[in-house]
Amino acid sequence: MDRQSFVMTVPAGGTRRLEWGQAMLMVGLLLLLTLFILYPLLRVLFVAVSDGQGLTLRHLLNFFDRPLFREALVNSLGAGGLAVAFGSLLGVPLAYFSVRYQFRGKLLLQTLGVLPLVIPPFVGAVALQLILGRSGMVNLLLLRWFGASVPFMEGLTGVILVQTLHYFPFIMLNTAVSLANVDPSLEEMAQNLGSHGWRLFRRVTLPLMLPGYVAGCLLTFIRVIDDLGTPLMLNYTKLLAPQAYLRITTIGIDDVDGYVVCVILVVLSLVSLWAARKYLGLSEYATVQRGTTGAEIGRPIRGMKLAVVLLISAGMLGVSLLPHLGILVLSLSRIWSFSLLPTVYTLGNYEEILFRTPHFVKNTLLYALLAAGVDIVLGAVIAWLLLRGRVFGRNLLDAIATMPLAIPGVVLAVGYLRVFHGWDVPGLGGPLTGSWVILVIAYSMRRLPYTVRACYAALQQIHVSLEEAAQNLGANQVRTFWKVTFPLMLGGLVAGGLISFMTSAVELSSTIMLVPKIELGPIAYGIYVYMQSAIGRGPGAALGVVAILLVGLCTYLTNRIFAGRSGSAFRV
Amino acid sequence: MSSKASEVRLEGVGKRFGETWAVRGVSLHVRAGEFYTFLGPSGCGKTTLLRMIAGFAAPDEGGVWLDDTMVNALPPWKRDVGMVFQSYAIWPHMTVFENVAFGLRERRVSRADIERQVGEALRMVNLEGMQGRRPSQLSGGQQQRVALARTLVVQPRVLLLDEPLSNLDARLRAQMRIELLKLQRDLGITTIYVTHDQEEALALSTRIAVMSAGAVIQEGTPREIYEAPRERFVAEFVGASNLLRGEVRQATRDTLTVATDLGVEVRAACPSVHAPSPGRILLTIRPEAMDLLPPGEPADHRNRLEGKVVASAFQGAAIQYEVEVGDTLLRASVTNPKGKRLFQRGDLVAVVFGPEDVGIVPEEPRAESREPSVVRSGQD
């Protein structure tokens, strides 16, 4: 009804013109998003379910007959499940401590808890090799002291370890937000009726914080299954994402099995995402709570309890920050092999990446900025149409714009290669896939859901009456938007842009397939290329440090804009 | 459903948040079966007091007693005092049945008994057939009833109600007020009620403690509180009051003659218990005790102040007047106005009221109450 009253204030002629404008906008957006999101996805699906003559399920069924694919599927599911399980062990206690207890160092805990997210997982993989790998620091020590080593980083174990350490903040942040939103009187009521301790937690607190926890888990699960960089870095390919990648890159763009793996990946992501939405939709928990008894800032703890909390927190955060340390040390080392720490230190690696091969950093800034710009514009327009628009197709627009959440980077890249290969674009002097523009498109489409969400949230908080008041005082649609709506949603726009920028800057899974040639590659690609050789590890690590700094800066800025509601950017 | 009615005693109770005392030096005694109300503006410490009785806050001074036991160190889950929260605190992840059954399950009541007792409790609050509902499917009034049933079903020794009606709309509030009254009187359960709504307090309570700035200013039955406020704060907070400053001229056994600052003498028939020491005092007169007469008409033995009508509003059951007397605005509410003359803005009138309708409070708060010094309001 808000929408109607919005239009009521516009003169009849204006309404009609406005609706025409909206309709054109809607058609344009739908065409754009269909071309770059829906169509490539459908092409992938089509290849997977057709042979020369027509539609067939033969390829899909074949998938399950191949031992390698079956193993990859089981491994992917297992890796996702275990990363969620271990991530919960890390994330849930930290979330509980940071919300329910009051102690010195709590702010540090909350800040450090987000840090794993600022390191791209494949960079973390390299760093952990140095510390926990076969000839890494820890194993060298173990060999020296006990004459034995532990294969932390071998095969699937390594993949799960890296992913757990990288993704557990998703679980922690979502759980913490959920927990903080539990009205204290709900727990006090249970105490009043005789409940306390573990029973109180199990019967009241746990069910109430479950939505956030489940959301965090599913988000983690999706990311782990989609992750291509980590397994490639650790040279472990018996997972779905690397299988899709290897099929397409080694056998060729026409290999049907690669497409089948892509379809399986999409189905897994879609099911997880659907489950998350379904679960969150079911629990209308927030709606029945009204009035609070005052914000609870946490119970002060001291003595043994404080010691235990600090010890657990320090231990967990220490482990999760190992990759950061490792990559920093590596970037400063010239020789680091079979020794606890580097034997020769140098700044040469930074010289290499900043002066001899500066294109990686430059490309990253260019692509990520462009992608963020595209996302801000698209996000703002889409959010406006969804909330204030009065034309057909809003549900469709919403659905397509949300879809990239469930499309792994590999799949989108495969789709792009399939669709745009051999399709010369005038002005580019070749196909889209031969130009760096394809990277910008891929990045902006993959991050679009985040910016749409940020803009939507920002616009939602602007009550229609603010715009109506401007119109009532004589401002037309356009002036109203620029004078009132735009300034008020600026925070959301910037936040959305930052999220898009920082995640694009370290995107590897689609990059690795779409980069036309080395000189056009961004940081993520540079790291990947450097890390292929022993001599390149130093410069690769230096690039990793640059990536960490970029992401860290953006995370900081995002949190500032979201006014301390840290992590709202990383939620389902 | 019968309840083990208990009594509650507070002795010199104080609670501090940081440097400031939210409550201090509160002593009172709630008798078994009473409906006792903490009445006061927001921030006066009434909810803090209630939470100390429930065990959610520990007193920094003094003691809370349930019957013959000092319960300061007893955790909430062992106190057996039922509380209904302002927000109702209905668990959204449980059905109505599960919500109401919660306390019984904690008490290891058998399944069959739970079934029966929950049914009875829901019938008592007129929610039969709602067992399977989700809280999100309930209206505010229904949630309120669930909260009440959930607390009453465990037959607590004391019932604590924290502004339970404040989230309901006016109509529902009036209805729930009556139901609550009947329920409490039927069950005979000792009830402590927190509200800032003086009408609610007057209608429901057997006794009221009026609170301000963390202290009890006056304790008494609703009639005592309303008809004989002993502090300026009580006179102003409970119902509206006109205040006149003055000096005691003459005191006989049952009548005081006071020279008001308006220059007119006013007689007050005040019970000797309240007789203040001579000196400056405040007179309180309720608007509904006042009547308006044309200037010339005799006022018999009643007090009489000449003034000019500044505003008049006809409200059906009463006419509200503002009358300027000297530099003071008096509010008069002429009830049952049918057939009476309606004065207009600018009319000269005589405001009349009987000596028995004049109350006396000290000009400054009594020493033992720590109300901050009274700010001069526009009325005087």
Question: What do these coordinates show?
Answer:
The complex is a heterodimer of chains A (572) and B (380). Chain A is mostly helical and 572 residues long. Helices cover 72% and strands 2% of the residues of chain A. Chain A has two domains: 1-56 and 348-572, MetI-like fold (Orthogonal Bundle), CATH 1.10.3720.10; 60-239 and 300-346, MetI-like fold. The two termini of chain A are 27 Å apart. By secondary structure, chain B is an alpha+beta fold. Chain B folds into two domains: 8-227, P-loop containing nucleotide triphosphate hydrolases (Rossmann fold, 3-Layer(aba) Sandwich); 232-362, RNA polymerase II/Efflux pump adaptor protein, barrel-sandwich hybrid domain (OB fold (Dihydrolipoamide Acetyltransferase, E2P)). Helix content of chain B is 22%, strand content 34%. Chain B contains eight helices and 20 strands. Chain B has a six-stranded mixed beta sheet with strand order 6-7-8-3-9-10, sandwiched between helices. Chain B has a five-stranded antiparallel beta sheet with strand order 13-12-11-14-20. Chain B is elongated and about 80 Å long. Chain B starts with 7 loop residues before the first strand and ends in an 18-residue tail after the last strand. Residues 367-380 of chain B have low confidence and may be disordered. Chain A binds chain B through residues 183, 185-186, 188-196, 199, 203-204, 207-208, 210, 283-285, 287-293, and chain B through 47, 54-56, 75-83, 85-93, 102-103, 106-107, 135-136, 138, 140, 143, 150-151, 154, 167.
Features of the shown structure:
heterodimer, A: 572 residues, mainly alpha, MetI-like fold, 2 domains, disordered N terminus, disordered C terminus, B: 380 residues, alpha+beta, OB fold (Dihydrolipoamide Acetyltransferase, E2P), six-stranded mixed β-sheet, 8 helices, 20 strands, 34% strand, elongated
